[in-house]
Amino acid sequence: MNSMNWIRGVNATLGRLAPEWAAGRMREVFMTPRPLPPRDWELPLLASSERITLRFGLSALRWGEGPAVLLMHGWEGRPTQFAHLIRELVGAGYAVVALDGPAHGRSPGREANPMLFARALLEAASELPPLRAVIGHSMGGASALLATQLGLKTEALVTISAPSRILSVLRRFAGFVGLPAEARHRFIRQVERYTGVPAAQLDVKRYNLTIPGLVVHAEDDPQVPVADADAIHAAWPGSRLLRLSGGGHQRVLADAALSDAVLALLEGQEAPRVLPLALAS
């Protein structure tokens, strides 16, 4: 029996006998990121960065000069996962600041959630020049959408592989780890207590999105269904949608079609609301 099957078996039993306890253990797992080191291909960009610490202790990397673009990675992610996009942005004359999310990298904290990520974006924006754009991957994208509802100011916003509603993420995780029905319900309630907001409210359909934006997603994303991109795009009148034929959940960050679409948005180039399906490069 592999470790995941063992965890599901334990949760199936304890989730019936002690649902609150099982829910609490899985909430801790869900909210506690693992420290994953950068890959070898990220190291050259890391070496060329400037490490900065913001007022409330958040750590970030900075490159280039020009209009400011703020980046937020996803769950268990790193700033340097945006390596290809960062090089393209710096080459086009932008200053890039990429955060270590709460409880990630050198930023403080042990646990994280979308609300903490959103507040981190607000804190960073308060110390940076007016933002030309905010770009978020996965949970970073969902948190960037949320941050705009909390007062984040930016001229443009880009989401990459982002979920459209947090409740779906919670349900997928609870199902993946094998929590039975009552424990799943309690898991969601516990997450809501820690984040301080009902999960159902963290849904793009409830947001008022008025800034120009770009929604990017790969057709073969195994973690966040591409239908989430359609939902974000449908709820966001000023957005463009770019669906890539391949790229999964992570490799999409290195796709040239992504960086081309981002630069076109930032430079004010006219484009159709739904961009042609791009082949993965």
TrEMBL record:
Domain AB hydrolase-1: 69-254
InterPro entries xrefs: AB_hydrolase_1, AB_hydrolase_fold, Carboxylesterase_BioH
Transmembrane stretches, start-end: none
Pfam families tied to this protein: Abhydrolase_6 (PF12697)
Stated name of the protein: AB hydrolase-1 domain-containing protein
